[in-house]
Amino acid sequence: HRQLKDFPDGFLWGAASAAYQVEGAWNADGKGESVWDVFTREPGRTFKGSNGEVAVDHYHRYAEDVALMAEMGMKAYRFSVSWPRIFPDGRGTPNEAGLAFYDRLIDALLANGIEPVLTLYHWDLPQALQAEYGGWEDRRIIADFAHYCVTLFQRFGGKVKYWVSLNEQNYNLTNAYQLGTHPPAVQDRKRFFCANHHAFLANATMIAAFRQHVPQGQIGPSFAYSPAYPASSAPADMLAFENAEEFTNYWWLDTYCFGRYPQAALAHLQAAGEAPDILPGDEAILRNGRPDFIGVNYYQTLTFTENSLDGVTMQRINTTGQKGTTPASGVPGLYKTAPNPNLTTTNWDWSIDPTGLRIGLRRLASRYALPLMITENGLGEFDQLEHGKVHDSYRIDYLRSHLHACREAITDGVDLIGYCAWSFTDILSWLNGYQKRYGFVYIDRDETDAKTLQRIPKDSFYWYQGVIANNGADV
Ligand code: BG6
Fold first, then answer.
1. Counting Cβ atoms within 10 Å, is residue 163 exposed (0-12), middle (13-18) or buried (19+)?
2. For residues 204 and 262, what is the distance between their CA atoms, to the nearest angstrom?
3. In this prediction, does ipTM exceed 0.90?
4. Fewer CB in a 10 Å sphere around the end CB: N or C, the chain?
């Protein structure tokens, strides 16, 4: 039994959130509409029609939330800025009241010794840009996104060191342009790869600008990383696994880190007429946007098996919380998901696999030789408030086992700089309302009733407080 290394000094023990999921105040102080403000008003889009108009009212209660973070001993807080709060029409002159809110939040964090980790984009695109030119499907998004980001670099670059560029470009755009479950609810692979190409160009363009404006800072994308497993050692399953790795992981990670698409996937898409249009100059832009670290959002591994040419296609994900209701999902001729009999799952059929986190961190460290930051990891479950308490021992077990896997990965040589659990307080799940909770702090509200919005620390809050206090020595 090998001695485990300690978490490094200065490790960023944190938790995370996203603007749309916590802020509320959807039209306060000059904020414009985001695509999510519009999408959630359409019938049948979300669980019980839930939306972020109030969310957990972090916009007005941020001081109380930061006080709880300080009580917990948190060293880092990852949050996102709402683009339409800064630019109600997507571009032009910034809205000073929107910028001032983030000044107040960042200053409160710094006053409590909490490192802000600022996500530039967590899916809440200004509706004005979606309406004007189709958002990510048009190259004009590249300049508008850069203008928005540079505005934040100039305003906050002196006090924010860690920046996340795009949150889960892979997951968000797959939902938006393949599954049709996020706005603009399209199901078209050609349009998917086009929007995705523009997001890569926007990401790289903005990282190049970051070098000028925040030379001391660190920036990287947050990637929804589900490391792939083969369902068996049969060569057909091994090939399906390789295909899945290339199409669902390396398509993004190689492009961020190496500035080029992986070749087998690109050849396949070109033959299928689904490849993005790569214009002269695009490759140079992509190569110039290498990140400083990779943000890893880890929830589960996925296991793959072969898929016939007339086989399974992409499927809607489980939004019911009923185990065993998620159908297989895949791309005909390439791969499809298969259950992994070695793993248990959550009520939403997400596999629980701490060893998969160790494996994934090692794969990324070996392939890209960059520092890694876990920007999300956590357990979404039904929580019960009983006599003013939430006994979430299942969440503690999940987090402890995943932190143990982090420590094993550090011992294996991975340069892991931080761990932001998802999430700090309970928050609005994009599609699942408040039935699926992740927080250390319970929020008294449900989908249809904002109730008291009272903050109630769960058992996991006090457990994580202890973990931070001794720098993870017991996990
Ligand atoms: C990630 C997102 O995909 O997973 C978060 O970055 C999201 O914003 C989280 O809330 C959990 O997703 P869900 O569907 O369980 O709420």
1. buried
2. 17
3. yes
4. N
